[in-house]
């Protein structure tokens, strides 16, 4: 089947060729329909979710969608005139493109599922660790290239609200975090990736694994009241931090119980 017309001499390449008043390359025009979940990235497609887009006759559909503002991490199935196509498809004039959102739960190859969070997602990082999800996070901004390289090297799913970071090709996988509120971010990540939960097994400070500890093991970290009141302790095998059922415990129990219950509901509804 045709994969589109040969590039017209006047529209060849990204920089040559005629452009419209917005500076867009005046090449083949396509019709694009976006899933509702993606419209925050393409306000120009509101309210109907559809828009016309000029392409350059050589760029892939993936590039065209990204150029319109949608991170490919958020894109699921692509249809052209009702037939599924890869992101490498080069759109031809008059094609009608449907862009679906990524399916939930999203399966990421290379299990076990691991995450890497950018500097703005510290609370989410601690909550994922509380649930036993392997979550790397650094409280200083190491920069997009270093984050992307770490995602690739450690096969971690990059979670961010930075579209520029999510466009980096080196990423193992990535996901846009839609909310700025941790109490919405955590359910979103759990629903999107459905990770295995092992509550109370990781250090919320450093992501290390916890092991049982005696009062003597952690005595140097305990104040008098804690020392007298508690007998069950855990200790991070990486940083040595001591854990016990202290003052904030009921809040943490609530977070864990909600997460475990929501996972049960997802499993139940999935049959
Ligand atoms: Zn630790």
Identify the notable features of this structure and list them briefly.
single chain; 271 residues; alpha/beta; Ubiquitin-like (UB roll); five-stranded mixed β-sheet; binds zinc ion
Averaged pLDDT, please?
A: 88
Spatial order of strands in the largest sheet: 2-1-5-3-4
Q: Which term fits the overall shape?
A: elongated
CATH level 1 name of the domain at 9-101: Alpha Beta
What's the CATH topology label of the domain at 9-101? Ubiquitin-like (UB roll)
- Number of alpha- plus pi-helical segments: 7
Low-confidence stretches: 1-18
Main sheet, how many strands, which sense, barrel? 5 strands, mixed
- Helical percentage: 25-40%
Give me the CATH superfamily of the domain at 9-101. Beta-grasp domain
Which percent band covers the strand fraction?
A: 15-25%
Bound molecules: zinc ion
Task: Explain what this protein looks like in three dimensions.
The relative contact order is 0.10. Helix 5 (182-193) packs parallel to helix 7. This protein has a domain at 9-101: Beta-grasp domain (Ubiquitin-like (UB roll), Roll). The chain is 25% helix and 19% strand. It contains 7 helices and 12 strands. By secondary structure, the chain is α/β, with parallel strands linked by helices. It is elongated, with a radius of gyration of 24 Å. The strands form 3 sheets. A 5-stranded mixed sheet has the order 2-1-5-3-4, with no helix packed on it. The site of zinc ion has 8 residues, from loops. Zinc ion (ZN) binds at residues 203, 205-206, 208, 236, 238-239, 241.
